[in-house]
Amino acid sequence: MNNFTLYNPTKILFGKGRIKDVAGEIPKGAKVLITYGGGSIKRNGVLDEVNAALQGYDLMEFGGIEPNPTYETLMKCVDVVRRNNIDFLLAVGGGSVIDGTKFIAAAALYEGDAWDIVKTYGVKMKRALPFGTVLTLPASGSEMNSGAVITNRALNAKLPFMHPALFPEFSVLDPEKTYSLPAGQIANGVVDTFVHVVEQYLTYPVNGKLQDRFAEGLLLTLIEDGPRALAEPENYDVRANLMWCATLGLNGLISAGVPQDWATHMVGHELTLLCELDHGKTLAIVLPAMLKIRAQDKKEKLLQYAQRVWSITTGDDNARIDASIEKTREFFESIQVPTRLCSYNLGADIIPTIVEQLKAHGMVKLGEKKDVTPELVEVILKECL
Amino acid sequence: MNNFTLYNPTKILFGKGRIKDVAGEIPKGAKVLITYGGGSIKRNGVLDEVNAALQGYDLMEFGGIEPNPTYETLMKCVDVVRRNNIDFLLAVGGGSVIDGTKFIAAAALYEGDAWDIVKTYGVKMKRALPFGTVLTLPASGSEMNSGAVITNRALNAKLPFMHPALFPEFSVLDPEKTYSLPAGQIANGVVDTFVHVVEQYLTYPVNGKLQDRFAEGLLLTLIEDGPRALAEPENYDVRANLMWCATLGLNGLISAGVPQDWATHMVGHELTLLCELDHGKTLAIVLPAMLKIRAQDKKEKLLQYAQRVWSITTGDDNARIDASIEKTREFFESIQVPTRLCSYNLGADIIPTIVEQLKAHGMVKLGEKKDVTPELVEVILKECL
Question: How many beta-carbon pairs under 8 angstroms link A with B?
């Protein structure tokens, strides 16, 4: 097992009716800015519940944070925060709203060009406004980690950054608030969570037995309850398990002490940027091809995955690995997330641009062994056709 | 799944050579009291390493915290803390030293009779001195939770308490520091961790799929690596997995959203108090009997345990449950922790006293359904003979 440092001070308030508990977590007298996205929280009553919980606080709102939140939109919010001396941010939404709010929290206290925060992967920032979250879409894991991904339209870049000051103070996870989500968003969230786990699990063995068992537990639960979440949208336990999977899939627990990949995510970000594909869909396209092309490097863990996650026990090594990758593809397809570029009317012509974008963004040595070059990505993308 | 709140701000510094990193975690200029037990940390060089890491700090030491730390000893340390204006405590040792240090941290700032802290299960305390830990014995999980168990000799009581102010600021977990432990202590630690997990897992189902999978992952790892830790004392990965099991087995993660039992622990504490048996040994005695007598109440989870942990798939329900309990007993015996009172030269004559002690300590409604009465404990103890 590798050495690691694990620190995660986010307080999780999980379950039915927990929105009312946010008031106990925000300093009395704070001037609070509620951040949100396209307005679904107005239609489904979540914003009303948040407002009722925060009676007596000085409240403002900033809506319109888009999926794949942009630097351009977020800087407008930073201006609002500064002009109104906001003390505390409350992100109400999914990963995009939470990621965007992390950037706002950092940028509001940053002196200098705020894009530096992202460009330096968080190295240049020192502090951030405190913030909490009310999660409405299980997928990104942002509600219990210190990372975020921000898009800069002008620079044509979608890049991650992280900093210890960016852990939410608290996150409310009420599975009932996910009942009204469109099926497509739930399915994307299942894929996103699944691929988060795979990025931390399907690398090379370092004898991290708990990390492996926990990752496998997450994957098995997603495989069981992902399709059920679509078939039974108001099954509380199913939604609860899914929500908890998304959070535990990317809160630092399963990556502690083991190698991590993340090549699928980095290529996926470029696909989103170029083709405006949903994040989850890009991962469903890239992952099966990524695993297939890099199967020999990931052989031992893929064999373990085949056995423990998919109960594949017959055939030689290569056959079992191929079968596990095929099962992965079938799982994504079974929840209506297509896994081929052609299903999204995309063809080989985009591949050179993706490869160029990766080079432009410095993503030239990806993966757990830093050996996924733009040239290898080209091969992988051809496998996605 | 049940509602839950999960909060755990302890920073884990895991791996080889991490003691040197404690300096970065303690405020500069703090007056630090190092607390420890019987002195093994002097013989094995751990204290020297800690002192070297803390060069430049104003340091004091307090040794002699015994296994099952007593109020009487700990109050002497509280006096030292108060007279010397100590700012920060650093517990170097196993669960007893860490539990004791938690009491010292709370009592040093408590106005009034410090035993009230324990007697009220932490309700009456409001704050504690900050403290960190350097763990040398994986077992209690105290290094990443906010609970402790303290013995009061004068009152003949061994009782737990907890408070959010009692999370360590940091804990150093260096698996190499466990190489020199006697085999008996490693074995007790494996049993302690195993039973911690079982107390949070073998109750009744609430569809907490991840909690179950994680608990099963912990148990499977203990079953694989517990015996190997005895056979290969300097196998780093084995010791690392064991250490991480102990911490994750009782840090709030697997209990979040599911019922908890703890009857085995409460009965075990009375056995330690009366017979001076090691904590781990009391658990090895009580657990198999506890599961057997309460098998019908725990039927669904025991069947799941039989299948997923012990791969028992043949026989009717009762046969599979019996086999799983027998496997549990055999596992403890296989690492040289006997599971019968008679192995410790104890007989039926102690049973009435144990039952009376439970009543005296208010332990009259134990277990996940609060239906484990002193009368039922009597039946269970007869099964332990």
Answer: 125
